[in-house]
Specification:
Radius of gyration: 16 Å
Distance between the termini: 27 Å
Number of helices: 9
Number of strands: 0
Largest sheet: none
């Protein structure tokens, strides 16, 4: 599958996917917005589900009609279908970050999407600096704490932006 096709599969005009950049998706609405409008939390949850469904679509399109791809897409759909809640949101965010690390089509789709929304550096930084450092540790712990995975990624991205992580050369 071509990367521009992946972007199209991630963004359905009938879903809230196109309205949210990666940073906003991962961090959720601001505390001020949450206090003023409880509806924004539901909108963020719907965006999370739509993005996870988009990942499922990309998996099916990328790997073709194989049993493995079908099973993987169904597993991702189950994450998208989790009910709305804090723990479930962490699982969806972790799924997005994991797919961002592992699937080149997803990487490209998020980078291009964020460029269009005016935040070109966040997704690129997450892909090339933060996730290579954090993902192996998350997988080493059997992916048991998705909320910690998401929070660590956001913390490193926000508080130590541009800092070299690990002991390999900076990009």
């Amino acid at each position: 599958m071509r990367q521009d096709q992946a972007s199209a599969r991630m963004e359905n005009e009938n879903s809230p996917v196109g309205l949210v950049d990666l940073r906003s998706l991962l961090m959720g609405p601001s505390l001020e917005k949450r206090a003023e409008d409880r509806e924004c939390i539901l909108q963020n949850q719907q965006s999370l589900s739509a993005h996870v469904r988009g990942i499922s679509n990309v998996i099916e399109d990328t790997y073709g009609p194989s049993q493995t791809a079908t099973v993987a897409a169904r597993e991702v759909e189950q994450i998208a279908d989790l009910p709305e809640g804090n723990g479930e949101a962490a699982c969806k965010r972790a799924m997005i970050l994991f797919a961002l690390r592992r699937e080149p089509e997803i990487m490209h789709a998020f980078v291009e999407h964020d460029k269009r929304l005016g935040n070109p550096k966040f997704a690129d930084d997450m892909i090339h600096r933060v996730l290579p450092f954090v993902c192996p540790r998350f997988l080493n712990d059997s992916a048991q704490c998705p909320n910690r995975f998401v929070l660590l990624c956001l913390l490193l991205s926000e508080m130590w932006a541009g800092e070299r992580l690990g002991n390999w050369p900076a990009l």
